[in-house]
Specification:
This protein has 232 residues and is mostly helical. It has helices spanning 2-22, 27-59, 64-93, 98-108, 120-147, 149-173, 179-188, 190-204, 213-226. It has one domain.
């Protein structure tokens, strides 16, 4: 039974991702991609500078303790930068992702009426809340990833999968309906959303390709919203 139910979900996920990939060259995708990447990089630079200053203050100058603290700090900053890049990318690009969903609907679903759901400000706020939650959970799991790498990495992947899946789906759903309706739909289609979120989380682990995640995820979730499993 589980396998029978899983096949339509996997097929729907693959269809959504393939359709989104084919539209990546769309000019409407470029702005959130470039601005999101730039904003995330600036955020990581700021994080690195702040961490360096804090570690220097804690270490208290020179000697072996200061050297060890600086080395440990460098490792923590590198690991944090790797896993925090996607939440930062989502926070910045979330302001511009409405145009991505609109471009997908214009090309693939031209008969849809104009979007009349939540405002762009509400959608951007939703993306910011998603990013903040992912940052918080990631920071909690980072020490575990250093102490127990396999368990920690699986935990970080699960956070990314659920966060990306539910957050991006809710973002595109809010364009078409109120928050309560979007929340109810997200609950009903959680299996599809988490499956697609898991695929996006795997992509997020690949440097350079992770830049595509907010744009690709928004486009794929727009297809998921407009293509029920029974019609896939």
């Amino acid at each position: 039974m589980a396998g029978t139910l899983g096949r339509p979900i996997c097929r729907l996920m693959l269809n959504a991702l393939l359709l989104a990939l084919r539209q990546i060259p769309d000019p409407a995708f470029r702005r959130p991609l470039l601005l999101g990447a730039l904003g995330a990089l600036l955020g990581l630079v700021g994080l690195a500078l702040l961490s360096g200053w804090a570690l220097g203050a804690v270490a208290g100058g020179e000697g072996w303790f200061a050297t060890a603290a600086a080395a440990a700090g460098a490792v923590l900053v590198a690991v944090a930068a790797y896993w925090l890049f996607i939440p930062l990318l989502l926070a910045v690009s979330g302001i511009f992702l409405d145009g991505v969903a609109e471009a997908v609907e214009r090309r693939h679903y031209p008969t849809l009426p104009p979007a009349s759901g939540a405002s762009t400000v509400t959608q951007a706020w939703s993306a910011g809340i998603l990013a903040a939650k992912m940052v918080g959970l990631t920071l909690i799991l980072l020490p575990l990833s250093l102490l127990l790498p396999i368990i920690g990495v699986l935990g970080l992947w699960a956070v990314a999968a659920i966060g990306l899946g539910e957050g991006l789906f809710e973002g595109v759903a809010l364009r078409r309906m109120g928050r309560d309706a979007a929340e109810a739909l997200r609950q009903r289609r959680r299996g599809e959303i988490w499956t697609l979120g898991g695929a996006l989380a795997l992509l997020a682990a690949v440097p350079v390709l992770n830049l595509l995640v907010p744009v690709l995820g928004t486009a794929a979730m727009t297809h998921l919203l407009n293509r029920p499993a029974k019609a896939a």
